[in-house]
Each structure stands twice: as C-alpha cells, then as structure tokens.
Amino acid sequence: MRFSRKDLPYDTRNADDIELITQTTWNTTIVCVDSLAKKGLYTVANLQMPYGAFAQTLGWGNAYQCKANNLVSNVFEWLDEAGEFYFDKSAHKLYYYPRAGEDLEHATVVVPELEKLVDIEGTDTAHRAEHIAFEGLTFAYSDWNLNEADGSHGRATNQGAATLWAYAEEDWHGNIYREYDVGPAAVYISSAKDIFLKNNTICHTGNDGLSLVNDVRDVLVDGNILFDLAGTSMLIGHPQHMYIGDKDSDKGKHSDREKYDPQTEALCQNIRVTNNLFKNTSRLFWGDPGLMLFAVDGMLFQYNQVENTPYSGLSLGWGWWNFNGDPDSVIPNAPAIVTQNNKILNNRFLNCITTLGDGGAIYTLGKMPNTVISENYICSIGTKGVDASYHIRGIHVDEGTQNVYGEKNVIDIDPQFACIDCGDWGKKGNNTWLSTYSTSGLYTTTETYEAGTKITDSKTVSDGNWDADAQSVIDRSGLGEAYRARMAKTDIQNAESIVSIPQAKPNIPLIIGLSVGGALLAAAVVVAVVVGVKKKKAR
After folding, report:
1. Residue 331 placed within a domain
2. What b/e string do you get for 317-350 counting C-beta neighbours within 10 Å, with b at 16 or more?
3. Rounded-to-integer distance, Cα 80 and Cα 453, Å
4. Count: domains in the chain
C-alpha cells in the first residue's frame, strides 16, 4: 500500500499497531501493518502476513481493497481531538486527550484485558453445563485483538460475524464455511442448557456481546440491555452449522477442517429472547448485524427493541440457496434445514442500516420452515436521500429464503426503498406477506418477483397516518411497559459515532501522558474503541 507521506508519516511509532480498513456495500475488511518505509514521495505500508493475504482471497468484492479509500487508525500524530487516546507500547505510556471538564487527577482509567468475561462451555452433547442463572449483573469492558494467524492480525469476512481464520478458497459456499469461525463475546456460552439471563447489562465490548454458539438450549434472555458493542449484540449458532456432525464426512470439501466433532456439535434450540434493548451495535465492525442468528431451531424473539445499527438490524439464517439440495447446490439431494420454527413478533427496529447497504432491518437467508415474522414496527431505516441502488429494505428476503409467513408488519421507510424485498434473489419463494402497512409501495428491487411469493392486502400509507390496526401494532411493539421504565432509568451512554471521521491536523496540541506499567497494558494493545481514525486516500 502506498500513501502520500503528508497523509501517513513513514517514521510514526509502533507501525504494527496501525490498522487499515476498506468498506464495501455490506462489509468492512481490516488488515494490519507490519512496517512502514519511505519511497520517494510516498509511505509504503507492508501488511502483516499471512493475514494480509487471507483478506485478499475473499469473493463478492469483499477482499481488502488495495486501491480503494482506506480508513487508517492508531497513528500517534493524529491524536488531536478530545476523547482520543493512544497507547505507546514501546514506551509503556498511554496518551489521552481529555474532554472539557475532565480532571485526570481523579479519573478512573479502564484498560480491558479479557476477551471473554464469562466463558461457559460443557464437554459434549452428553455433558452440558446446566442450570446457570445471571440476574442484575453488568458485564463491561472486554477486549479483542482481532483474528490472529502466525503472529499476524486482521478481520476479514464475506458477510456478517463469520470471520476468516485461515487461507480460504474464494468459493466459501463449496467449503461449507470451514475456514470461518466466530470471535469472542463478553458472555460466551457453548454446550449448555437451562441458562437464565435476566435484567443484566452488557456493554463496552471489544467484539460481540452475548454469544450462544453451539449446542445451547432451553435459554431465557429477558429484560437485558446490550449497548455500545464493537460487534454484534447477540449471536446464535455457528457458520459451520449447515450440517450437524459432518466432520470427516463426505459432505463438501475439507471436512477435516470442521470445528466441532460429531459428539460436540448440535443446534441451538428453544431460545426465548424477550424485552431486551439492543442499542449502538457493531461500532467497530460495521458489517455485523445488530443480531447475528446463523442457525437456531425454536427461537421466540418478541417485544425487543433494536436500535442504531450500521448494517441490518437482525439477520436470521445462513447458507443462501446453495444448500437447498437441488442438483446445482453444494450437496445435491441433501438439503440443510437448520433454521426453523422461529418467531419474530412484536419487536421495534429503529435507525438500522445507517452506514452500509444491501440489507434490511430484518434480513433472512436460506430455507426456514415454520418461520413467522409478524406485527413488528420498523422505522427510520437507512438515510433519507441515499441512492436507492444501495438496496435498503424494511425486510430483506434474500437468497434461498422459503416458508416464511408475515402478517401486519408496519414499515415506515423512505418511499424509494422497498418495504419488503420479494424480488428474484435466487431460488426463494413460498413466502407469504399479509396485511403489511408501509409508507413505501415497493415490494421488489428487481424486475421480477420470486415464484410462489404471496403479497395480500398490503396497505400503502404515504403520509404515515396509520389507521387503528396499524397504530395498535406500533403501540404494542418493543419493550413492555415495565421494561421501558427500567430502561429509562438506566444511563445508556450515546458514545459518538465512529462514522464521523475528522481530518488530520498538522499540529498536535498538548497531550497529557500517563505512564503505566507495561504488564497491565500488554494484553490490550488494540483497545475496545477505535482511536484517532482518519480517512486517507490510498495512492
């Protein structure tokens, strides 16, 4: 990578802490610098390997873009605005630019060290961790140093919270996502049953908030607040869950790379998620949906509020059409049905898809029998005035989605965007949408509808003057009254959006330096907040 020397100094300190980020329509890719060198009028950034190479193997335009605009972070000379900080690991010194009114003589400085604050994992499907309850607790300030491969770091993926951990072929469908895993979460649960989480708070995370990853069943998640999260707020399932027990099988390529052995792999089942607030998610990893639900059987998602997500609000399902068992699918005559019997009811989605595109407040993938998406209120999706080519939808019914029933969803969206995208996006169909209320009359972003889709009794209300039935859906959506009162009493910080990127200034004002012990910060070189992010154009 070549940058103008006036944009990126070649002799800045700790070059291997610098992160380079490129953005596509629905994703971001992060690679890290190994070293900087001067070459004529340019600064040459050499990438950490092998992860820098991993990130350039992705398909669908998601590879790291060497010739595109880059976001560059962790450059000492750009520490120039209140609230920013920089950790000089070589000098064991933390620099902080104080905000107005802050007194560092009496400040509390939190330095995250743990990637998982709580890690619950049983042994196998016959020996799960069980009967565990968390109530009224706060889990805050986890860390994550990105994916690591042979000493190199980065975060690359084709979509969502499935991150690349090894060299992968471009066709990730054919490999059944076997080079992809999920990252850590503040509360991470696998191989467990009878788990109860009520009235807790999860916030200020270095990656995900709450993850139910593999073989987690009989769970209640009720009345919790999850906010200010680097990644997705809640994750269920795993990208390798297209088939269960397929390690060392004849299914697809490289089955020896499956993460879970047959005796440990199982779907997540019977998950109740009710009356929770998911707010300000994916603040570092914009391509993560507010909630990432890869595979789950028997989930009830009801009376929740999802607010402020740079990409989709909730993503349900995985695998696209590529696992429907057709002759041209990855495994012919062996359809994968791992996401089924789920209900998304009476939820409120506010201010989703604020930064990226090609998504929906609710986004679906793959065949999902007995799925119900009804009486949800979706409002303020996308940015008004954004080109409709970004394909922003209230509900995006994407590739392979089948057997979904939706009724009485109220969708307040810019009329240029589709309220529900029922277009021909790849072997989907047999989906029914009844009595949809929307400010947009668009039901496709393509020229044709997918076969078998039924749209009945839809009501377009251009001025948002809802009738009594629609208003009743709005009033009953989101948090219950008692939960709203609790949320109102909670101090939920609205941290500044990382989307607002200031330009670099040539001079650095006086910075207060705090000398701290190297051992304390050694595990937190990449802290849970992007610092001093500047937009620079690669040459």
Report:
1. yes
2. bbbbbbbbeeeebbbeeeebbbbbbbbbbbbbbb
3. 54
4. 2
Predicted pLDDT of residue 269: 98
Closest CA to 296 of 241, 361, 354: 241
Output the average pLDDT for the chain.
Answer: 89
Least Cα distance to 159 among 356, 372, 334, 301 occurs for 356
CB atoms within 10 A of CB 358: 21
Q: In which domain, by residue range, is 530 found?
A: 2-111+522-537
Contact between 434 and 408 (Cβ < 8 Å):
yes
Residues 330-370: tens digit of each pLDDT: 999 999 989 999 999 999 999 999 999 999 999 999 999 99
Residue 281 within a domain: yes
**CA-closest candidate to residue 309, choices 479, 164, 497:** 497
Whole-angstrom Cα distance, residue 369 to residue 337? 8
Q: Is residue 287 part of a domain?
A: yes
- Are 201 and 261 within one domain? yes
Does a structural domain hold residue 165?
Answer: no
Same domain, 199 and 275: yes
Q: Is 104 helix (H, G, I), strand (E, B) or coil?
A: helix
pLDDT bin (cut points 50, 70, 90) of residue 491 is low
- The total number of residues shown for the chain amounts to 539
d(CA 236, CA 246): 19
In 112-196, which ranges are continuous DSSP H helix? none
